Amino acid sequence: MFDLLTQSTISSSLFALSLLAVLFGLVLGYAVVKFKVDGDPIVDQIDNLLPQTQCGQCGFPGCKPYAESIANGDAINKCPPGGQTTVNQLAELLGVEAPELDESHGEEKDKRVIAYIREDECIGCTKCIQACPVDAILGAAKQMHTVIVDECTGCDLCVEPCPVDCIDLLEIDEDINTWSWKQPDLIATDKRGVIS
């Protein structure tokens, strides 16, 4: 009788523990899914301040991973494309003092830079397309490629892999056509996507 009662109690306890483990797993799974769907508001706010060049100069493969790292306490001054203005905005958002831009990650550029492919020299290898983090290069294998100016962030990641060195980075002078370059629909381009 004692053995039967002990076995019954043990079985009930194991069942209760199993049920508790399943419930805990469901709650944890829901929390993970909710976090991935909703995201972290501070990470999203940081990411919105970053320039979205996805250039990797900060040491991360894109702006979102850098934003996540900043939210976890990483330095806010590793983004040359964003420059000191972005550092100041991040400092204000996080309520910290703004450090100087860390130039070991690159120098801030005064003007917007875009990639330009000299199309008559392009061999259509697609290496620049594969390197572009924002899909700003249009072309196909063994066909000439061109840069979609409105999408180019000037990260220069397409320059290095080009085997025929036919990609130039061009600075865009600020004038009536380019002063509002962050609103791409206001940039005057010709049919090849070249700034006019």
Q: How many domains is the backbone divided into?
A: 3
Count of strand segments: 4
CATH fold title of the largest domain:
Alpha-Beta Plaits
Low-confidence segments, given as residue ranges, are 33-37, 180-196
Mean pLDDT, to the nearest integer, reads 80
Order of helices and strands: HHHHEHEEE
Q: Which CATH class of the largest domain is shown?
A: Alpha Beta
Helix/sheet category: mainly alpha
Strand order of the largest sheet: 1-4
Shape descriptor reads flat
Distance between the termini: 95 Å
* CATH architectural name of the largest domain: 2-Layer Sandwich
Percentage of residues in DSSP E strands: 5-15%
- What count of helical segments does DSSP give? 5
Biggest sheet: strands, sense, closure?
2 strands, antiparallel
Helix content: 25-40%
